[in-house]
Amino acid sequence: MKKRFAILVLAFAIVFAMAGVGTMAWFTSQATSTGNTFQTGTLTLGGVIDGEDVANKFATVTFDNMEPGEPPEKIQTTVLKNVGSLPFYLYRITASDLVDNNPDNEKDDTILDEVLMIDITIGGEHVYSGKLSQLVEENGGYFDPIYGIEPNDTQDMVITAYMDTNAGNQYQGLSMTCDLTVHATQSETPIQGEPDETWHNMGSTSNFRVQGRNHQAFFRDYVQFDWDWNPDDSDFEYYEVMIKHETGDPNVEITEERWQTEETFIWWKITRNHYDESIVVHDMITGETIDLDTYDVLWNVEKDRISINRNVFPSDWKGIEVKLSGTQYKDSNNPSLPDKSTIQSLPIQYWSFDE
Question: Keywords of this protein's UniProt record, alphabetized (predicted)?
């Protein structure tokens, strides 16, 4: 007989606020607010519940009778809707307010977030795959923005949930509730890379998170990407920064398909291994290795940080598209070549040079 393990209830909420009151008209989703009204309109993401438009929330879904690695997975669908008067884009999903539904037992049922695997698509775009606990992280849940959500537009959000195949008997009979928040912002809000010296959260995987900033050092302007590993002690680490430039337009949707197929002016892959402490810049178009100046691409071994001189790019570029990847590994036979299946990537993102 199969043992039933867990029940997960995802109570969805969407919260909104405005930043820079009086001087800026940006609407964001950083705090709870209702009736955000400016002369430019309102930014309100909501949902459709029982056929009715609802502001700042969307339908709750429940996953029950879950067990480790159970096929088929549990799949639920809910609907997001722009119920305001301004277009916006979606860029993040987070989890919060984990609640133990069995407070009288001796266990903390919220430990389920470490073994519950979640896969989410919005409007057919894949936005997240990993542990629920990663969405609870302060810097978690960022995805490749979904642009052009016009007033009255709807997007189906499909959530697939399953338990880690390694989940043990200690997870039997547990039940928890958590809130998921989908974050939206007005299309003209300043984007990653602006302004200089400000660290921006690029997102996280189960193995690492990355921050980025524009930084001046040694009379040069650098773009810096800083990895924070989990766990933070490993024999070898592999870093990969893939850079493209197509339109240089932050409002153009960056999809994996476009990334792989569209023509481009530049497509570099910068890799770095702890094993040989080398940085290699590879031209993905010509297949050749690029020989750059010593100070054009720097590596800080103590901070796990890669710095790229902005002067290596044409002066009229306002930004780039970037894909950040990495893995930790230990291979005594060939430690310079990690297993490709272990490499995890953040969503493709636009990075502004703030020029």
Answer: Signal
Domain count, the chain: 2
Mean pLDDT of the chain: 71
Residue 323 and residue 252 share a domain:
yes
Instruction: Give the residues of the chain that fall short of pLDDT 70.
Output: 1-49, 53-61, 63-67, 69-73, 137-139, 187-191, 193-196, 233-235, 246-267, 273-278, 330-338, 354-355
Residues 124 and 228 in one domain: no
Domain that holds residue 236: 200-352
